[in-house]
């Protein structure tokens, strides 16, 4: 009987741990939110639809810009 409770306890701990992981990983920058190659040309301000700063955990700071032609352009701030 004590083995059954021991196994159920381990299953409960694993279930609680697996539910907590996505919440813990939310604050880690994803590779999609970092820039590795930067666009060196000029982008007219009128063409910029959206801009998002890269995360603080990225190796290089940058801004991800969305334009009508491009979904994702990395530029230096």
From TrEMBL:
Keywords: Cytokine, Signal. GO terms for biological process: immune response. GO terms for cellular component: extracellular space. Residues 1-20 form the signal peptide. It holds the Pfam family IL8. Residues 33-77 form the Chemokine interleukin-8-like domain. It comes from the Eukaryota. GO terms for molecular function: chemokine activity. This is Chemokine interleukin-8-like domain-containing protein. It comes from Hemibagrus wyckioides.
């Amino acid at each position: 009987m004590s083995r059954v409770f021991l196994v159920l306890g381990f299953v409960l701990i694993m279930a609680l741990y697996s539910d907590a992981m996505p919440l813990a990983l939310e604050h880690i920058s994803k590779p999609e939110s970092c820039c590795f190659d930067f666009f060196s040309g000029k982008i007219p301000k009128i063409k910029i639809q959206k801009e998002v700063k890269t995360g603080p955990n990225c190796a290089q700071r940058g801004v991800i810009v969305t334009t009508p032609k491009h979904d994702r352009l990395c530029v230096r701030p």
